[in-house]
Amino acid sequence: MDCFENISKTQNKPKNLENELTQLKQSLPKELWFNGTPMYLYQGFWAPKLDSILAFQNHFQAHDTDVFITSSRKTGTTWLKSLVYAICNRQNHPPSESPLLCHNPHELVPQLESTIYTKSEFPDLCKGKCPRLFGTHVPYQALPTSIKVSKCKIIYIFRNPLDTMISSWKFYQNVSDNKTLKPEMLDLYADMFCDGKMPFSPFEDHVSGYWKKSLEIPEKVLFVKYEDLKDGPVTELKRMADFLQCPFTTEEEETGLIDDIVNLCSFEKLKQVSEPNKSAKVYSTIQNDGFYRKGVVGDWVNFMSPSMAERFNTIMAKKFSGSGFMLP
């Protein structure tokens, strides 16, 4: 399995660093999430697990060959991780023998701030094969400097905010420690989403940061829309492979390799793989099959009122005005 298994155990922080972290937290606005843990307004976004994010920012050293799957939560992260993994590893692991057939994509493409740096402030990442694949929800402006100045590749996935909000609302109800979030709290949850008081939010700022960089440095940042992946997965896979500088050959296209990857990473296949491993957990608070609900476009209409949708659309239209970005 091409994942990062050699992650050292948590080390104790020097007393002076603990004091500095405590002082920083005391100086920042704070909101409690549904699991009772604080989020801090840090560098323009609401940061959960601030200790891990700071460790990631301060100590991660990017390689020029690294690939980062970036996103807001519940925008298609799991799907994108599987696709990028399959594209980058197709020589050693063809679809019929892929580790994706027995492992969750989050195992193969670990999340930096919520997996790697929660276990150690100084993880050993030397065992990762080239290219190293990582995921993060951290906004562009808060990424470590080494990522910004290196020649690494960043792929960002966007999803319509209406579907994103409903997907995250459903997802968090299945997270075991979010005991105060109830199904009848949709209006409150929507208010929080619109106000930007969600992990790694405001959503529209998160999107804008990566969108602008995809225009400024297109050779480094690729912006992908969830809806485009659903409508034309073959076209989008070819675009990603070209961006990653490992384009599909004519022979690969003719033998149906791209279609095989699309099928391997389809919602139905990933969900099927998760079925025998329902009790397995990448994260301690949710089972692996909890990452798969419907995976459809437009499901928000089954939950949101017209007035709630209108509020969302007004906020997003105002925020993205003049940016050249069009909502799907």
UniProtKB/TrEMBL annotation:
EC number, as in UniProt: 2.8.2.-
InterPro entries cross-referenced by the UniProt entry: P-loop_NTPase, Sulfotransferase_dom
GO molecular function: sulfotransferase activity
Keywords of the record: Transferase
UniProt KW Ribosomal protein keyword: no
Membrane-spanning segments: none
Pfam families: Sulfotransfer_1
Domain Sulfotransferase: 64-324
Catalytic class of the enzyme: transferase
Top-level taxon of the source organism: Eukaryota
Family: Belongs to the sulfotransferase 1 family.
Protein's name according to its UniProt entry: Sulfotransferase
